[in-house]
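Blinded run. Sample ID left blank on purpose so nobody reads anything into the name before looking at the predicted structure. Input follows.
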Amino acid sequence: MKKFAFAVSALAIALATVSTAKAESFNFSASGSRFTGRGTLTGTSLGGGLTAITGGTFTINGVTGTLIGNWTDSGYNVYAAGNGFQFDYDNILIGSGGSKSLDTFGLLFKLSNGGIGKLWEVDGVYYWNEWIGTEWLFDTGSGAGGDPILTNIRATPEPPSLLLLGMGLMIMACFIRKKPRLHRTNPPIQKAA
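Blinded prediction complete.
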């Protein structure tokens, strides 16, 4: 019985301290003068405050978008927009803890209306631009090439179900007691008179 209680305790501790080295999820929202968007991004921690975004969907001005391409931490990827224009992107978020931010190369999305959208940061200011058909939505020759926006990227709270399961198993292990064995006693031997 002691082995069983030990095994249950070990399982409970393992479940209660599950590693967070799995896919991370982030709630994402952004807004600007002509832009609103929100959705979910998923990724994997690369260490050093970098998170590789591997998927995500969100809605931009009422149009659904999905993440394009693979992440890279060595330079950037190039996506040809057309008419000799291109998007440079790396699909990486930076920052530690629950709050993340975009980097200079940013995130690239394919929009359901056929457009391509990009979110990025330059000198602490976040930008958005969209390629629709054969032209940019915002003048690429002005400012940082896009419309300034505000962003908020926060880690999605982890469901506490595994923690609750682990705690429940630990409590159960505490209440498991070894049942007393019933000892059979022989009737007393009577002396002959």
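Unblinding after everyone has recorded impressions. The helical segments are 2-16, 161-175.
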